[in-house]
Amino acid sequence: NAGVTQTPKFRVLKTGQSMTLLCAQDMNHEYMYWYRQDPGMGLRLIHYSVGEGTTAKGEVPDGYNVSRLKKQNFLLGLESAAPSQTSVYFCASSYPRAWELFFGEGSRLTVL
Amino acid sequence: SQQGEEDPQALSIQEGENATMNCSYKTSINNLQWYRQNSGRGLVHLILIRSNEREKHSGRLRVTLDTSKKSSSLLITASRAADTASYFCATGSIDYKLSFGAGTTVTVRA
Predict the structure, then answer these.
(1) Per-residue pLDDT tens for A1-25?
(2) What does the DSSP assignment read for B32-92?
(3) How far is CA B1 from CA A44, A58, A78, B53, in A?
(4) Is residue A107 a contact partner of residue A8, using CB atoms and an 8 Å limit?
(5) B47 — contact with chain A (CB < 8 Å)?
């Protein structure tokens, strides 16, 4: 049982480049989330999805786009990376109207 | 903006001692949760306490919630080296989104 899997685990980008982070979960969870974690700031919600084909903005959505074409996958895209997007990104999932989040191991992104 | 704020930011204790950390929040909540994060890993759910509960136990963990003071505490009893980690409180609101604090880093010395 893999749980929540994020790829890639590490990536270095140059300013202006684009990339996509993939999150896959095998728990049949309806809800999926993307957070970023920065030193001293805890986790901040970027975007989330309450089901296949739905997405919504979180606390810090600017500069990111997401898609949930399949229930098990949640993609986070950076169209034009900026140094301010250097962070560790975490994907999480949960059952509907349940509160416990299951997290992936994180994707560390550096934008030069 | 962060809903929860943990205190202290860092805590160093001897193995076998108890560790206590606090979380304060600003608005009404449905529940409050605590998560643990080992270095370089994802967060792991520890315990959830609902807004109508005052205390909850799970193994060596004890969580209290005081909604009148908008605060919670996490107590880890008889700490072990494996308890070395960062601990985050997260508040849940009616829209099923969690808001995390900045965390408390706990170091357990052998």
Answers:
(1) 679 999 999 999 999 999 999 999 9
(2) EEEEEE-TTS-EEEEEEEETT-SEEEETTEEEEEETTTTEEEEEE-S--GGG-EEEEEEEE
(3) 8, 11, 22, 26
(4) yes
(5) no
DSSP state, residue A84 = G
Contact between B51 and B63 (Cβ < 8 Å)? no
Element (H, E) at A43: strand A42-49
Q: Are A46 and A55 in contact (CB under 8 A)?
A: no
Count, residues in chain B? 110
Give how far B45 is from chain A: nearest CA, Å. Answer: 7
Tens digit of each residue's pLDDT (9 = 90 or more) over B13-22: 999 999 999 9
Residues of chain A in contact with residue B98, where contact means CB-CB under 8 angstroms, are 45, 99, 101
Q: Which of B2, B31, B40 sits opposite A42 (nearest CB)?
A: B2
- Identity of the amino acid at B9: Q
Q: How many CB pairs under 8 A join A and B?
A: 57
